[in-house]
Amino acid sequence: MTDEEAREIASAFLADRIDEIRTGEWVVTGAWEHETAWSVGYQSRAFVESGRISDALAGNGPVVVPKSGADPWLSWSGRPVEEQIAEGRPTLG
C-alpha cells in the first residue's frame, strides 16, 4: 500500500462519517507509515491556510489504515498512535 492509497482510503472513511470532510472544510494533512498500518492526519482547511491556532481542530487522532486491508479506524488522540496500532483496533467499554 502506498502513501497515496492510504490517504484515499482515509479520506473516503472520513467522508462517510464527517460532513466537513465532504464539504472540504477539513483536509488530509499527511500520512505516516508504520510496520502494519498507515496513520493519516487531518485538520481544518482554515488552520492549514491561516496557521492560526484558533482555527485548528483539537483532540482528533489520525485515521489508521491497516496494510492488511482491514477496515480503517480512528485512533484516540490521548495516546501515541504507534501504541494503538501495536495493540490493534480499540474497543469501547
TrEMBL record:
It holds the Pfam family Imm35. It comes from Micromonospora vulcania. This is YrhB domain-containing protein. InterPro entries: Imm35 (IPR029082). Residues 4-73 form the Immunity protein domain. It comes from the Bacteria.
